[in-house]
Amino acid sequence: MSKLVIFSWLYLLSIPLFAQDIKVAQLNCAYRNNPIGIDVLSPALSWKLQSAKHNIMQTSYQIVVSSSLSNLNKNIGDVWDTQKVNSGQSLQIKYQGKKLLSSKTYYWKVRVWDNFGHESGWSASAFWQMGLLNTVDWKGAKWIAYEKLADSNVNSLPTDGKKDKYIGNNILPMFRKGFTVTKTIKKATAFISGLGHFEMSLNGAKVGDDFLAPGWTKYDKEVLYLTYDLTKLLKRGENAIGVMLGNGFYYIPPVKERYRKLKVAYGYPKMICRLLIEYTDETSANIISNQSWKTAPSPITFSSIYGGEDYNANLEQKGWNLAGFNDNKWKSSLLVDGPKLNAQKEEPVKIFENFSPQNINPVANGEWVYDMGQNASAIIELKVRGKKGDTIRITPAELLKADGSVTQKNIGSPSYFTYILKGDGLEIWRPKFFYTGFRYLQVKGAVPSGKENPSNKSVVEDLKALHIRNAAEQVGKFSSSNELFNKTFSLIDWAVKSNMVSVFTDCPHREKLGWLEELHLMGSSVRYNYNAAPLFKKALQDMKNSQLASGLIPEIAPEYVKFEWGGDMFRDSPEWGSSGILMPWYLYQWYGDKQAMTDYYPMMQRYINYLGTKANNHILSQGLGDWYDIGPKPPGVSQLTPMGITGTAIYYYDLKILEKTATLLGKKADAMAYAKLALEVKDAFNHKFFDAKSKQYATGSQTANAMAVYMELVEEKHKNAVIENLVKDIRDRKNSLTAGDIGYRYVLRVLEDADKSDVIFDMNSRSDVPGYGMQLAKGATALTESWAALPTVSNNHFMLGHLMEWLYSGVGGIRQAENSIAFNHIKIEPEVVGDLTSADVHYNSPYGKISSKWKKTDQTFTLEVNIPVNTKATIYFPVLPKYEISEENNSTFTDAGIADGKAKVVIGSGYYKFNLKYK
Questions:
Q1: What distance in Å separates the CA atoms of residue 807 and residue 798, rounded to the nearest whole number?
Q2: DSSP 500
Q3: What whole-number distance in Å separates Cα of residue 717 and Cα of residue 707?
Q4: What is the per-residue burial (b if ≥16 Cβ within 10 Å, else e) of 811-848?
Q5: What is d(CA 532, CA 510) in angstroms, rounded to the nearest whole number?
C-alpha cells in the first residue's frame, strides 16, 4: 500500500473527528439569518459554535465575504477576507470590507480555531442582501395615493380630548400595475412601503407572510420599508402588482360611531415601490411607483387601528391584481410627498396560534357568543354561507357581562368587524389592517352551523381567532414542579406575546401605545423568552424620533398623542423616559451590542440634561411614580411610595449607567461628570428620604426600600437592615405584595440577590390576595393591568410580569456572572425554595443554548446543565453540612469550595450531569 493511499485513508478517517471537535453554526447578520434589506454600511456578523467536547473556546476566526456564491465556494473573499484573526470574538463583529452597494447580495462564511489547536471546517454559506442606502437608489419611485388629506387637517401630535375639526370616513385604496417581462429572470426584489399598512400581491398571490407591514413609527420623522424576494412569483410574460392600503396609526378616521383612543392624522394612505428585476444576461429593469399606476377604492369600507374593520364582498373586483384586468375605470394615482425611508430591521408581525371556539352560547336578540379560551392579540377568520347583502357584525371582548354577552367597557367601544356577504357559496374573510385583544366574539346577523335557524340567517361554518405578534424567535422555555408557577409563566407569556408587535404596547386593544417603562422593567423577562434585540433597537429609534427639543423623552414612543390630563404627568415621568438611557446598556449586557450606545449617546445626554433642569436639589418628583401599586384607593398614581423616591432613584441609576457607557465609549470627561453628579444625587436622596433610626426609606414601602437597595443608594453599612425591613413588610402582610409597575421588579431583584428567594416563592404562591395567583383564580388567561384583575381595566397587559425574570434567573438559576457580557460567563444558581422539587429551564443565548434541569429528593440533588461553546460557567449547589458531588460522565470540573452556604464548581463548555448526595 502506497504512502499516498495510507495518508488519504487516514485523512478520510479524520474528517468525522475533525467535524466533531468544533463546528460553526447559525450565522447571523444584524441579528437575522440571511436577511434582506440591510441598510447599514457595517452590519454586525455573529455565529454560534457547537462541539461534543468540553471546555472549548474559540481562539481565532476567519470571515470570508464574496460577491458571488461561486467565489465563496472557491474561498475567494473578493469583498472581505479577514484572514486568520487571533480573537475569541464570535458576536457583533463589524463588517470592514469593501463599500457595500445598494440591493447587492453578499455571501459569507466563517471558520474558527479552538484552544486545543483544532480548526473547524468552513461553515455553511450564508448571505445578506442590501436595501436601498440612498434616496437615488429608489430610481425615481414616487409616493402615490388615491387622494390627499387637506394640509389643514394634518395633525401629527393631537392633544388628547380636543374636538374634531372635521368628521368622516376615508377611502381605503388599492393600486395595480401591469408590466411585461421579456427575458430570463435571475432575481427579482421588491422594496416597498405603504402607509399606514400595506398588503402586496404579485400575479394574485400574497407577497410574504407578514401582517400589518410596515412597522409603525413616528411618521413625520421616519417610515419603514420592506424588502421581498419575488423571484419565484415573477414570470416571463405578463405580470401584475397589486397593493391594498390600510390606515394603521398613520390615520385614525374621525368616525364618531367607532372607538378612537386618539386622533392622529398624518395623511391619507399612500405607497411607494421599486421592483428590481435582474436578468441572466446581467441587465436589469425597474418597475417604480408613479402616476402610471392605477387606483380604486377597495372592498374595505372602514378600517381603524382602534375601531375595527368593515368589508363589503360585493365591492370586490375579480382579477384586479392579475395581468389582463381591465382597469379603464380606475383612476391614475396621485403623486404626493413622503418622509424619510429606512429599512425595517425588526422581525415582522405574523400570524401564529389559531384558536377554535371552546363553546358557543346564545344570548339575547338572537346573537351568539364564541369563547376562544385564550385572551390574545388576534384577528378573526370567518367562514360563512348566506345571501347576498347579509351583514354580520362580530364584536370582540375580553370579558362577559352577567347575562353572557360581551362587554367592551374596559377596552374601548364600539370596536368591531363587519362582513357583508356576496352570496357566493362558502366565503372566507380575514381583516387586513386591524387587530385587537379578545377572548370572546359576539356574532350578530348569523347563526352557528348546526344550530336552529328559523329566520334563515347566514350560517357561520367556522370562526377562529388568529393570534398575531412580532415574529421574534422564541429562545426560552420554562417548566417546574409547581403548577401555579407554570400557569403564571403562561399568563405572563401571553401578555408579552400580545403586546410585542412592531412596538412593545401596553395592551392590544384600548391604547396599543408604546409606554416606555415596560422596556427596561420587563426587558429581561422578554429577552429570556424572545430574541427581540432588533425590536428593542427600533424602540430606541422611536424614542429618538419622539424626543422633544427640550430633551424630554415622552412616556410613549412613537408619540402619537399629547396627554394633558393632570398636567404633564402622562408625558414626563423619569421612570418611563429612562428607557432611553438604560436600553442601550442592556443591549450591550445581553447581546454584546455596543452600537446602540454609540448611536443613541446624544439622545441619552440630552435626556439626562433635561432631568437635571427638572430636579429640585437633585430630587425629581414629577410623573406617575409607582404606578398601579396596591394602596387604599383604586389603582393609578403611586399611593404607598411618595413622589420623588422612584423618579430620583431612577435618575441616580441613569447617571451610573451613563458613567459606564461614557467609560466604554472612551469619553472620560463625561464619565467623571456623571460620577460626580451621581454622588450629589445620592447624598440628596439619602438626606431627604432615609431614616437612620428605623433604617427605612420614606414611608418604608416595599418599592422605596427595594429601589434604594437595587440602585445602590443605601450605604453598605445600612444595606442588610433595609433589606430586612423589606422582608418584614412582606411577612407582616402575610406574604403579600404592594409594589406596582415601577417597584415590583426591584423587589424581586433585591430579594433574589440577597438569597431570599424563599420570600419570592411565598409572596407569589397565594391566590387570595392581589397577584398572579388571584388573576388565575379569577379566570385570567393573560396578565392583567391590575394586580387584582379588575374588570374595569385591561385584562391583557404586560407591565406587571416581572416574575418571569425570576422564573429563569431564580428557579432555573440561569444568570450572568458579574461583568459577563452576552452570557459569556454564566452563573447557574437554582433557588430550591418552597415546595419546588424540580425545574427544566433553558435559554438560547447569543452563544448557544444554556440549560438548567434539576431535581431534588430528601437525599439527593441532580443538576443537568449545558454550557455553550466559547463560554464558561460557575455552578452553585444547595448543600447540607455533609455532601459529595460527582459528575455522571466523569467530566472534569473545578471545585471552588463553599460560598454563602452553597457548594461552588467551575466548568467550561459542554453537557454535565452533577449528582449531589447528602450524607
A1: 16
A2: B
A3: 17
A4: bbbbbbeeebbbbbebbbbbbbbbebebbbbbbbbbbb
A5: 24
Residues 33 and 126 sit within 8 Å (Cβ to Cβ):
yes
- The string of DSSP letters for 580-613 reads HHHHHHHHHHHH---HHHHHHHHHHHHHHHHHHH
Upstream peptide bond of 196 is cis (omega within 30 degrees of 0): yes
Decide if 194 contacts 174 (C-beta within 8 A).
no
Burial letters 697-729, b for 16+ CB under 10 A, else e:
bbebbbbbbbbbbbbebbeeebbeebbebbbeb
- Phi, psi for residue 516 in degrees, rounded to 5: -85, -20
Task: Please give the helix or strand (H or E) that residue 386 lies within, else none.
Answer: none
Predicted pLDDT of residue 765: 96
User: Would you put residue 79 in left (φ > 0), alpha (ψ -120 to 50) or beta?
Assistant: alpha
- Reported pTM: 0.96
Cell numbers for 734: 402575610
Residue 617 near residue 684 (C-beta atoms within 8 A): yes
Q: Which amino acid is at 362?
A: P
Element (H, E) at 501: none
**DSSP 8-state symbol, 122:** P
User: What is the residue-wise DSSP string for 59-118?
Assistant: EEEEEEEESSHHHHHTT--SSEE---B-----S-EEP-SSPP-TT-EEEEEEEEEETTS-
pLDDT of residue 19: 44
State CA 35 to chain mean position distance.
18
- Residue 599 φ/ψ, nearest 5 degrees: -65, -35
Determine the length of the chain. Answer: 919
Look at the block and give the residue holding cell 432631568: 611
What type of residue sits at position 70?
S
CB neighbour burial string for 239-265, b if at least 16 within 10 angstroms, e if fewer: bbbbbbbbbbbbbbbbbeebbbbbbbb
Residue 16: per-residue pLDDT = 39
3-state secondary structure 842-909: EEEECCEEEEEEEEECCCEEEEEEEECCCCEEEEEEECCCCEEEEECCCCCCEEEEEECCEEEEEECC
Cα distances (Å, whole numbers) of residue 449 to 368, 387, 663, 769, 836: 11, 15, 67, 42, 47
Residue type for position 197: H
CA 345, 346, 351, 352 torsion-angle sign: positive
CA 459 – CA 426 distance, rounded (Å): 10
289 close to 272: Cβ distance less than 8 angstroms:
yes
3-state secondary structure of 437: strand
Identify the CA nearest to 370 among candidates 388, 357, 356: 357
Q: Please report, for residues 5, 54, 287, 871, the alpha-carbon distance to residue 13 in angstroms, rounded to integers and kept in the order given.
A: 12, 22, 54, 29
pLDDT digits (tens, 9 = 90+) for 42-71: 999 999 999 999 999 999 999 999 999 999
Q: How many helices (H) and strands (E) does the chain have?
A: 17, 48
Q: What angle do CA 470, 474, 477 make, to 5 degrees?
A: 140
In this structure, what C-alpha cell is assigned to residue 643?
413622589
∠ CA 144-147-153, rounded to 5°: 115
Neighbours of 209 (CB within 10 A): 9
pLDDT mean by block of 10 residues, the chain; 919 residues: 42 42 96 97 98 97 98 97 98 98 98 97 98 97 98 94 91 98 97 98 97 98 98 96 98 96 96 98 97 98 98 98 97 96 97 97 96 98 98 98 97 97 97 98 98 95 98 98 98 98 98 98 98 98 98 98 92 98 98 98 98 98 97 96 98 98 98 98 98 97 98 98 98 97 98 97 96 97 96 96 98 97 98 97 98 94 97 90 86 88 93 91
Strand partners, 397: 440
Contact 521, 582 (CB under 8 A): no
